[in-house]
Amino acid sequence: MTEPASHAMHDQALQREAAGRWGAAVRISHPADGALEISPNPEVLSEVCGWLFHERGYALATVVAQERAQAWRLLYLFWGGPPAWVRVRIEMPLDRTSLPTIADRVHAADWHEREIEDLFGLSFVGHPRLGDFVLHEEWAEGTNPMRRSFDASRPPAAGSAGEPRWRPGRVVHAAGAFMMPVGPVFSGAAQASHFLLETIGEEVLRTIPRLFYKYRGVEKLAEGRTVDRAVLIAERFTGTSAVAHAWAFCRAVETIAGVTVPRRAELLRAAFAEFERFRHHLAAIAGIVHSTGMTVASSQADLLVEEALRSAGAAVGHRYLFGQVVPGGMYRDWRKDQLDELCRTVESLARRLDTLSRMFRFSSSFLDRLEQVGIVGRGQAEDFGLVGPVARGSGVEADLRTMLPYGSYRELLRVEGHVEQEGDGYARLRVLIAEAQESARLIRKAVARLEPGPVRVEIPAVPGEAIGWCEAPRGATFHWVRLDGDGRVARYRLTTPSFTNWHGFHLAAERFAFQDFPIIMATFGLSTAEGDR
Amino acid sequence: MNLAAGFFLAFVLLGLFGAALSAMVPDRRVPATLAWTASLASVTLLVASGLVLAHGVGFELPLMHLPVLGALGIGMDRLSALFLLVTGLVFAPASMSSAGYLGRYLGRYSLRLYGVLFHLLLVTTALTLAGSDLVTFLFNWRLMSVLCLLLVGFEHGETEHVDAGFLLLSMTEAGVLTAALGVLFLGGLGASGLDFASLRAVAPGVGSTARWAIFLLTFFGFSMKAGLIPGSSWLPRAHPVAPAPVSMILSGAILNLGVYGIVRVNLDLLPVRWVGQGLIVLIAGSLTAIIGILYATIEPDMKRMLAHSSIENMGLVAVGLGAGMVFLASHMPVLAAMGFVVAFYHMTNHSLYKSLLFLGAGGVDMRLGTRDMDRMGGLLRRMPYTGLFFLVGALSIAALPPLNGFVSEWLTLQTLLQSTALASTGVKVAFALCGALLALTVALALTCFVKAFGMSFLGMPRSEGVERVRELPRSMLWPMGLLAAGCLALGLGPTFVIPALDTVVAPLAHGSVTEELVPPFFTLGTSGDARYSGRFVRDFHRIGAQVGRGVIPGRGLVVLHPGGPRNPVVFAMSTAYTAVVLLLLLGSLYLVVRWSTRRRKVRRAAVWAGGLHHLSPDMTYTATGFSNPVRVVFEGIFRPAISEDTRESARGYFRTALTRRQMEPFALDRLFLRPVVGCARWAAARAARPHQSGRVNSYTAAVLLTLLIVLVIAGITM
Amino acid sequence: MSKWILRGLATGVKTTRYPRRHDGTPGISPGLPETGTELVFPEAAGAAAAVCPAGALEAEGGRLGADPRRCIHCMRCAWGSHAVPWNGGYEWARWAAESSSAKLAGAFGRSVHLRIVDAGGCDACLSEVTQLNNPYYNMHRLGFFVTPSPRHADVLLVVGPVTTHMRRPLLEAYGAMPGPRRVIAVGSCALTGGLFGPSFTASGGVAEVLPVDVEVPGCPPPPLAILHALLLLTGRGGEAEQVPEPGKGAAR
Ligand code: SF4
Ligand code: SF4
Question: Of A190, A327, A350, A366, which Cα lies nearest the Cα of A246?
Fold first, then answer.
């Protein structure tokens, strides 16, 4: 959106084609933020979105449903381009509660629509699978917590009557087929989530994840808070990617306020975000090693994780970097010696990671467990709009740092992306390792480029709406924020890489031997805190 | 005419009377009538055969004398008495249970017909075994086969059942024709008639080619009936579809007839002479056992699983017989006797627990309306007694001490281990391989019946019908209880069973094994006697072989093989002691737990399901799932045919259904039945006008045709 | 394989010496605001209290009261103009006010089996719990094990604010444990609901659902604080020998 109108040519080409195809059924406008806005009639909504997605190569960022004072407004935000952002907008009166699905053409929108159906009570005509998604059986039928009329301060779910029961739908029909339930409470320290593995014994034919056990209603909780407070939620709903999400949220707020974040703050944000990615990837690698049962190797990897946590704690006070990124910049500045110390630790950790990964490459018992396991094809990854290391393991770059550069990635920092083609567990591991090394390099580079200066600017309370994005450790995240007149959050739409990738998780968890399940889980490295929100 | 003969005649008359009565009473009364008359007849048969076994005195009742065929008659020696006893043991509970089971057919099928057929089957089966000449034997055999066909196809509404009946008839008929040809061949070698005594008389003069021919014809012919490879294809089709009492009889009594035929000809009339003959039986038995148990393990249909397991058990019987034959041919009468004793022991055991299990399975089928174990689960809560008795049967067949299956399977293994006494290395290797197969079979049998009991009676109900199931009627529980008690008794009392079987075996093996297998420890002094060295006796007395002396009758509680010079291997086993120790342990454990927790409050928590509130039935293991590892490991044998269908909506990513069908056709169909049928069809097409291909009829015709060809070739070569 | 063993040996012993000695390694803990400190400028207390988004700070006259249970480690009172004194260290675990188990601390011998339930935490708490298996902390050496079956569990360790959907699984897990059983609530979410509860989707802490015995404040509490909770529960808390240089507080 901040791109200047140098892409006017592409803009016009897009416009012409849309107008040519649908004529009066679409209205096209150019709001001030530089995006292209298409308002189609509902009948052609799916076609327009399908055209953007499949023919024009746009990716779906998020779907934002808003219950405005007079009407429903749905925004389908696509990125790619140029122009970088295309917004498809639907308005309809409040008493209408159904609209056509786009999931028949844009499969990536599947879960967005299911979520909106659950939380807003809007139904998507033509969507084959609605219901029982975010809200489980505990919630009374017809509860729509994201509606304005819903009182979010009420204690949870007084509505559930009697003994609510959940009847999972089965897909596999075969003599003796059954479902093996896994979770939501696991035997080790694992995030709450639930899976039904459909099997006839031994080979699992299909996996049905059931998520949102950790649904905390973050989007609703943020409403009515000042941005200073809301950023705490953005930071804490998934504490292992605190910087990235805080950054994305702040970028949305800063765009609305129209402020420019000081250069030093942008570099610090990038340094911390890269550190976070580095630490996250170390933990993800350790998780993968752990899932294959290599004890010594996993202790070695664990050491790196704890050392990374300690170095953050020692350099900037908090092991998970909470409290650093705030709207307008950074909460505080750090001295050069503190940051240099951080860089030195990162450098030594990166070296040790390198040694470990070279050892992995020659451990056949390790590779055997990862190769050809949990394969996601490139076409599937594109259709599901997968992001992050998972997508990059399947040959889809989808890195917002290079494709939709923001902050200091625009010019100060060049990211060398790493893409693998096989789409199996080992490909994802290689991506993680390469990205961790690249992050280590970027941290040093960002710190080296720091120049003295302010790290924070004031944020005026301005109403407006904007999207902020960031390449979080697990992939692209999009935070769409609307602020009201006194600078409080009126609507917060949060699309996270785990949400996006959980959607495609079942692709990898098909036709595998039961004992590979932890490995597939680990190589996907998803978080339910991040996905459930 | 002695007492036994009197009882036997009474039995025949009772059976015929029962048949007549069944034909006259109204359908509604048939079950009760049948239960009374048939079980009374069976008991009479038990008495008759029991008398012969106990006193060792048989009888002969000549009927008539035909010109060419010689003397016709019925009679009973110890061998036929044993088989008749087992037949009675199976028929009695089967008759009783008919009272409760038949109700489900009332109004749909003619119960009177069933009553008549059932009684006639009982009589003809007994007469087959009591026939003392080939003609009586064959005549009754074929009557019996037709009756089996009619009873298997009793629910003639279902084509599957009729087909199964026809396959049964055609294959066993082909078998018996082959076997009969073998016996006729023997008769043709100068016997004065076809009565067994005359046949026995010509035996010593038979040349080796003829001996081999007769052996092969009779062994493979009768093994068709016994369910041994390669002719077992009919068994898993026919046994499951019959009404429960008939299934019991088919597996518990009729299969034994095949064994009877093999034993009668190859041990009595024309005893085997070469090790090779025994090896053929041994190897056929081992392969049968492993094939049978493999298919039983993966089978989700409860009754078909039991049918496959019958194949396995008949294989085990053949293993014992084969080993005995090898020893017999190697002039080791004691070991030969051991092999035969073990074979008969196992046969008896199998008759008991298999009829118990078939009755249980039939009862479950009757109540639940399905034989599919994938749809059972949690039955124990609804049918506690059925479950308990089924458990006894399952434990027995899975060879767990102190039950009867353990005794006979353990002894079978021990018999195989005695091969160390043999001279030839090749034979030793064959024994070792068969022993390994046997061990695998036993292990799989455990898996199979853990599955059968666990997946059907334990866990959560996997179909709604289970919630409405009621316990079986008394008339079915009693027979199950009796059979279970029989399993326990045969398990606890090998010291009584073995001497009894030994009397049957001794004339065949020319040796006795009682002294070897169950030495009279209760009466032996510590200094030993001529047979047992003092050291040997003291050793065993020290480990408790005399515990119970003076309290318990018999020879002692331990089954042993002495460490004499001939048989250096010592083994000892006492199921009775095991049972006592088990009871003591469990009892004291119970008391200790009760005592130590007497002040504790017991808090019952639901099944842990990973935090899931409701574990729904489709989230628990199914029988198929439980046995799937076996299916995967032995894929090379099963050669499954898998077909898959998926249904999707909208862009292919919304998968709404994934349907998968997996079939494991019976390996013997693939390896034997189909090639034979194929060859026959081909030959028929060549020889005559295009073959009419009615499914089952073509099987029948094809099998018979092939048989003829084989016979012709055999005739020419001789 | 052997190369891994060699590498393992070459790494040497990394394990902390806690609880025998305090571990003052930088970055091992974020520290907590000191409670009850007399501020140099008493009037600053009010301003400092106002800066806390979680209501963990309270001005009592010139003193500053801090309620660590509420602290979400936003670090806003650690730095900048409203900075208040911070305390390093990590021995933060306390018996819950309602817990009657304090005197039963010895109910467990030296070996305790844990069951961990994520009742809606943000993964940071869970990550810190996981670190206890890290060679740096190696809780096995102290007799603490994570058990695969709730039937063998003595202690239920709960992170997160207990979301609506995790309420029943949590109760199921607790119900599946034999007595005597104890509950440790880890992290401010689990203590007070943190930022997320009480609300329409989350309770105001584990204590609303289960009887909590030991509470560990922090967002997230560092591994040693969780270890301290386990030691406290088994009657081994507070034995550490003080070393002259206590851990620094938050980086300044
Ligand atoms: S660090 Fe804790 S006490 Fe300090 S302001 Fe933040 S929440 Fe309040
Ligand atoms: S206490 Fe803090 S770190 Fe722990 S789960 Fe809650 S938000 Fe995350």
Answer: A327
